[in-house]
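Subgroup meeting minutes
Present: P.N., E.W., G.H.
Scribe: E.W.

1. P.N. recapped why we're keeping a running log of single-chain structure predictions: easier to compare across weeks, and new members can see raw inputs and outputs side by side.
2. G.H. added today's entry (94 aa).
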Amino acid sequence: MAYRTFRPRLAPRPIEMAAFERPALPGSVVDAVLRFHDEEQDQGSGHTLLRLSEKRLRAPEVKKALGKLTGRAANVAILWNDDEGQIIRVLEAA
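Output recorded in log:
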């Protein structure tokens, strides 16, 4: 029985993930959402979702605190533990 000759395939080039990833969320955005939030949604079990409303994002003090990151802060929500007074998770919509 003869073996069939074959040419090895070249491995496909890996996809560069750095081109698709966003830079990490700056701490100033998280701080601004904690300080200036005006929307609170109870999630149960002592957890609350904190957000900035469209109206609040237009306020002068919020614009001053966020600068160019105002648009990015519109997509940020913070899951807050009321019992411990700590951040559980920072969520950012794409």
